[in-house]
Specification:
Radius of gyration: 13 Å
Strand order of the largest sheet: 2-1-3-4-5-6
Largest sheet: 6 strands, mixed
Structural class: alpha/beta
Number of helices: 3
Strand content: 15-25%
Shape: globular
Distance between the termini: 27 Å
């Protein structure tokens, strides 16, 4: 799967996903750090990448309609998550992708032990 990690996620998350065989680009590596959310969302859409972020603004389906994206994953964790907490959430995400299939067009809110999916209408 193709992912884009937002700038608020560390390099360990990218390494974890890459070691799992996924194609991962990061906002930092692509020199998009400091870009506004709309720019990041547009780049993800152009690259057909699922965005993974801690930024709760992306959980607003009115600003970022899930059907217009290859998937949006908002990690809802503690206020200052450490790398272990982020990796735990990514494990939950990958397990769900294996069982649920494609995330394209969906908004998932991922916590350490569960996922909530936004359903329009």
């Amino acid at each position: 799967m193709r992912f884009k990690l937002d700038e608020n996620l560390g390099v360990r998350g990218a390494e974890y996903l890459r070691n799992g065989g996924h194609d991962v680009a990061t906002v930092f590596e692509q020199q998009l750090s400091g870009s506004d959310d709309l720019t990041v969302a547009k780049v993800c859409a152009l690259e057909n990448r699922c965005l993974i972020t801690l930024d709760r603004d992306f959980s607003n389906p009115l600003l970022f309609p899930p059907k217009q994206h290859a998937g949006i994953v908002v990690l809802r964790l503690s206020p200052n998550p450490d790398s272990r907490e982020i990796l735990d959430a990514l494990k939950v995400l990958l397990t769900a992708i294996k069982t649920e299939g494609d995330i394209a067009g969906k908004l998932w809110i991922v916590q350490r032990n569960r996922i909530r999916e936004y359903r329009s209408g």
